[in-house]
From TrEMBL:
GO terms for biological process: response to stress. CDD domains: ybbN. SUPFAM superfamilies: Thioredoxin-like. Residues 30-50, 173-198 are annotated as: Disordered. This is Tetratricopeptide repeat protein. Residues 41-50 have a biased composition (Gly residues). It comes from the Bacteria. Residues 30-40 have a biased composition (Low complexity). It comes from Yinghuangia soli. Residues 23-162 form the Thioredoxin domain.
Length: 332
């Protein structure tokens, strides 16, 4: 087998695709076997399985940023309202059942009156019990003054998840806790080389031959049958970046982007070149600004492209976390 082509300029190195994929798989395995943390960074306990958080002014931005990955349900609650307490128990059961396909963020209006007043005004809440959703930074009404039955609420959440997936490409927060290795296996073979995945063999053969387009199609074929395949998803994002930029004229791309600041195609290609050249924050900043300047389908196209670049770098990268917060600020 010939050495894998490593000619990709900048930080996105084609030769690192397989190694990065294996590292991502190992991180996922370790995360699955470890206690799940809640979206606010604190240990997630109780019925929510780590997908439930008490919303405060301090964690508001970080929780709302999660709406770029999964719908965030803002539940307005008060210990003075028996109906909202009953609804809260139902919500927690469903948060566990949906396992990261939505995030439950409970706002105690008595504990955080300032934040509650602001959100109640924005969401036009008339009374408790009440809930609204945030999908990719956009507010979506759910109900107020009358709580649905559990099965009705489950159907509403199914619809929210479907809208998030189909219109905004939201994939959820990942597997539920406790899906990792058996007890006592922590740390075993963490440094061992992961065995080759036969599903990826056609894509790797195409990479060895320098056939980027063929490799991209092979990864897509894997994802058609295995949409949750971490390695294929990461590798596809990286190879698609190579395909988009390999024949681009950098001078012309940057000139077009400067002349047409609201042209989404011009801005996304310039962002691709930024990323390929190692200018990660410039790429993210360019597309956040494009989202701010545009509307409708153009805005959504720029947003989805930015989410794809997040996948290239890795969702746990601090630059991605920062850019997610900036994107949410622009959208919400």
């Amino acid at each position: 087998m010939q050495p894998r082509n490593m000619s990709m300029r900048g930080v996105v190195d084609l030769g690192a695709v397989k190694a990065a994929s294996e590292a991502a798989a190992q991180r996922a395995a370790r995360a699955a076997s470890a206690p799940q943390a809640g979206p606010d960074g604190t240990p997630g306990g109780g019925a929510g399985g780590g997908f439930f958080v008490e919303l405060t002014e301090e964690n508001f931005d970080s929780v709302l940023a999660l709406s770029q990955q999964a719908p965030v349900v803002l539940e307005f609650s008060s210990q003075r309202s028996a109906h909202s307490i009953e609804l809260g128990a139902v919500f927690e059961r469903l948060a566990e059942e949906f396992a990261g396909r939505f995030v439950l963020a409970r706002l105690d209006i008595d504990a955080s009156p300032g934040l509650a007043q602001e959100l109640v005004m924005q969401a036009q809440i008339q009374g408790l019990p009440a809930a609204v959703a945030v999908i990719a930074g956009q507010l979506a009404p759910m109900f107020d003054r009358a709580a649905p039955q559990e099965e009705q609420l489950r159907q509403i959440l199914d619809q929210l998840v479907a809208v998030g997936e189909q219109r905004f490409g939201l994939t959820g927060l990942g597997a539920a806790p406790g899906a990792g290795r058996p007890a006592g296996a922590e740390g075993e073979d963490d440094e061992a080389e992961a065995p080759g995945d036969p599903l990826l063999a056609p894509a790797e053969a195409a990479l060895d031959a320098g056939d980027f387009a063929g490799a991209a199609q092979a990864y897509r074929n894997v994802l058609l049958d295995h949409p949750g395949h971490t390695e294929a998803k990461l590798a596809l994002a990286q190879v698609e970046l190579i395909v988009r930029t390999q024949d681009a004229d950098p001078a012309k791309v940057r000139s077009d982007a400067a002349e047409r600041p609201t042209d989404v195609d011009a801005q996304t290609l310039a962002a691709d070149l930024d990323l390929a050249g190692g200018h990660v924050e410039d790429a993210f900043g360019r597309l956040v600004e494009t989202v701010r300047r545009t509307a409708g389908d153009d805005r959504n196209k720029a947003r989805l492209h930015l989410l794809g670049l997040f996948e290239v770098i890795g969702l746990d990268d601090p630059r991605v976390v920062k850019a997610r917060a900036a994107l949410t600020s622009v959208l919400f």
